[in-house]
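Example: Dihydrofolate synthase/folylpolyglutamate synthase.
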Amino acid sequence: MSSRTPPAWQSALFARRTLGMIRGLEAVRAAHAALGRPGAGVPVVHVVGTNGKGSTSAMVAHALRRRGHTVGLYTSPHLHRVGERIRIDGAALSDAAMQTLVDRVLAVEGPALPRALTFFEILTVAALLAFAEAGVEVMVLETGLGGRLDATGVVPATVTLMTPIDLDHQAYLGDTIEAIAGEKAAVMRDGAPVFSAPQQPAAAAVLCAAAAEHGVALRFVDPLARAPVGLPGEHQRVNGALALAGALAIDATVAASDLDGVRWPARCERVASGGGTVVFDAGHNPHGIAALVTWLEGQPHPRRALVFGCLADKDAPGMVAQLRRLGAPLWLVPPAPDAYDLGALAGGDSRLFADPDAPEFRAAWDAHLAAGGELVVCGSHMLVGRLRGEVLGEAADEVALTDPLARR
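Written out as structure tokens, the predicted fold is:
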């Protein structure tokens, strides 16, 4: 299963990932100012949290587009192409457009900036630049991680949506729910009203305290009666309720039915392949995997196997524990050289493969599907994107459309 070789400009951009997360917004603010503060004054729906940010953001954008608004949507990470992160009126940017934007952002680096921009900072400013020049009416911005020092905070929010908060990225955000919630709750300093998904008591207490400190209106939403059509799973009832609240804050005519028909790949996504079925889900922490498992429990299959892999900084034991609730064979596949050491998690129900290119893995994959089986791929965006691209081939570029709404 071969992967695409990225062009030189993209390789240079990805090299910025080695900078990691740098605490402080001074550089991204300076770059934003040097480019004329693109996006200033445009209404912003800021989506913060641990899980469900992408789905929630996609639903907000979809609902507002249904009401005739031109929307800029910024999300992360991507599955196949970096341009998926920046969408204007439902369409992801082309590689050529991305290269031009990245070059323009990097051109302001130098004495005017206190340090080099990180990967996420470059893409955030590029998104704001693209949205401003396209004249979008609303921007939906998903945070990368955290909230207090996230680059998306360079433009103030009109309304903030807080998705479920759980343990993830502990190396940057802290080892407790309270610490992580505190990092995310710090976005309230903007003063924008906040709508939150139901939270664990510890997280809810932190959010309530921050709202009181900043004098911000905070409301917890109730799940919708059903998940929006297009995004299956009970957890999407919560994400849908949050998205509806955010869209209503921009346009009071939005209705729950405007969420229907949204398309967001690799969220309980079932694809026919090779005589069988593949389910792709981008859940990459125990809370996200638990939502997938709950959905799969309601979708029994007599011949199901689970394909799992993740990077070294993730809670692999916690995710594998959730997957083992299904009682299905577990295929452990490291997605990259810096993957979690999955050998330590192997047991009688599992098979360990060297990587997605291993002949043994490819043969097992093909044989399982040929026999009418189902494969569930999860744990890492890298693994999901890689295998989804193989299954869909050229059709993987359909991810360039967030949903089936006609383009203007």
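The first strand starts at residue 44 and ends at 48.
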